[in-house]
Write a structure and sequence with these properties.
Blueprint (H helix, E strand, L loop, with lengths): L6 H20 L6 E7 L2 E6 L8 H4 L2 E5 L8
Antiparallel strand pairs: 1-2, 1-3
Length: 74
């Protein structure tokens, strides 16, 4: 018997996978990691350091942020 995921469950799974990726990346980065909603049920994580300043088209789609785990202050 094969279990099919509902769209809400698939959306949650995609969101939590992107959050997990952002959390792993944040441990080794000076920059915040953002989870961006690409489309319904599709999320990606991006490193803020990859952009000079996030364009408003991305800022409007940020659904979660994980602060960078490294600090260059002593």
């Amino acid at each position: 018997m094969q279990t099919q995921m509902t769209s809400a469950a698939a959306d949650n799974a995609a969101f939590f996978a992107a959050v997990a990726c952002a959390q792993r990346r944040a441990l080794h980065s000076f920059f915040d990691q953002h989870v961006i909603q690409e489309s319904e049920g599709r999320y990606i994580s991006i490193d803020e350091g990859d952009y000079d300043a996030l364009p408003m088209t991305l800022v409007d789609r940020v659904v979660h942020t994980v602060p960078g785990g490294l600090s260059d202050e002593y």
